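debug: dumping io for the single-chain case to check the tokenizer round-trip. Nothing else runs in this session.
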Amino acid sequence: MVLLLVLLSVTAAPARGDGSGITVINVAPQFSGLSIRTEDGLNYIDVVVSDYNSWSDIFRVRVEVLDSLQAAVADVVFQQYPDNVTLTRQPRFTEPVGSYLVWTLSSATVNSQPVTVEERTEMRVTFVLSPVKGAWVSVTATDLGGLEAFAEVQYSAGFFGGLPQIPALFVAAFALAAAAVIVRLRIRRDRRGE
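debug: decoded output
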């Protein structure tokens, strides 16, 4: 019985971070919101991550745009701490793959004076990307203990942001075929005397 109480008191230790959490056993973060929209030619990926140990326990949020073979075309990361040991907040965005991140519009927000459970646990990260061709969007949130939340969305149109590019050769072939049909119809009309 005493051993069980000791184990419970050890596992119920508060989460690392600024202490504004709810003090539960380390649980994985989860997504409480995820939306993707295009506005003014830019792609906005809004990720709301909840961690019941507090938003200060969220270490990293990562968004990858993948091609149809699941290879990363764009990879953007918001990281709250320099590593998972140093607990001094130094929030920053990085872009390991590609150059699509619009740095000036991307943001991460938390409530610094939380009152409700949601305010204590949620972080909103908005990634703003210029048009990038891809078939999937993958989102991963990691806490300081290494636990993760993962979501992936497929785009059936085969692209993310902007219209798909039509090869110039296809356009030229189509124009040539259309011109040939028009000329043929015109010749046929002239022979009939119309």
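debug: round-trip ok. Strands lie at 30-39, 42-50, 58-66, 72-79, 92-97, 107-109, 122-129, 136-143, 148-154.
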